Amino acid sequence: MKKNHTTFLLICNVLLLIVIFTAFYFFKSSSTDVVYVDNVKLFNGFNMSQDLGKINNKKITKQKKKLDSLYTIYSILRKQENKEKALELEMQLRTEDQELKKMNEYLSKDISQKVWTRLNQYVKEYGIANQCKIILGTQGVGNIMYAQEEIDITTKVLEYANAKYEGN
Fold first, then answer.
1. Residue-range domains of the chain with CATH
2. pLDDT in tens, 7-48
3. Residue 61 to residue 135: CA distance in whole angstroms
4. Partner of 36 for a Cys bridge, out of 70, 111, 136, 165, CB 3.0 to 4.6 A?
5. What is the rounded distance in angstroms from the CA atom of residue 132 to the CA atom of residue 45?
């Protein structure tokens, strides 16, 4: 009778261990169903952001050079006390400065919109391919203030997005 009781306890302990390991495995794998990406790192590391930024920086640099040249001429005219031409150039300087600000603002919004449209598509594809139930975005200013690093998939999503962007 004692031998049966010991065998019974051994079987119960083995079953209990199996249940514990199964539960641990289930909860461990389901905890990765909710993951997050760092939006700032994702945006800044995305090759498309960098490519569009380079293109737009050339446009902005060109406008800045034009503005600098006008300012140099304006300074010379003021030193020569050519008030009429200086006043005329001052108005042009203001117009060109406003143009630069508008260009900068438009290009910044344009880049953001294009990049986020593409990134959202890639994040969705990544989530489907990797069976994620939810992918949260964080910027460290509200949505997610803390999360375990194990569920940060920013690097994986960034690699996936850059590979897709490059045609791979």
1. 32-165 (3.30.910)
2. 766 675 566 557 565 555 555 544 457 888 988 899 999 999
3. 38
4. 136
5. 22
Distance from C-alpha of 90 to C-alpha of 111, rounded to nearest angstrom: 31
Listing DSSP states for the chain in one string gives -HHHHHHHHHHHHHHHHHHHHHHHHHHHHHHTTEEEEEHHHHHHH-HHHHHHHHHHHHHHHHHHHHHHHHHHHHHHHHHTT-HHHHHHHHHHHHHHHHHHHHHHHHHHHHHHHHHHHHHHHHHHHHHHHTT-SEEEEE-SSSS-S---GGGB-HHHHHHHHHHHHTT-
Tally of residues, the chain? 168
Which of 6-20, 29-43, 74-88, 131-145 shows the highest mean pLDDT? 74-88
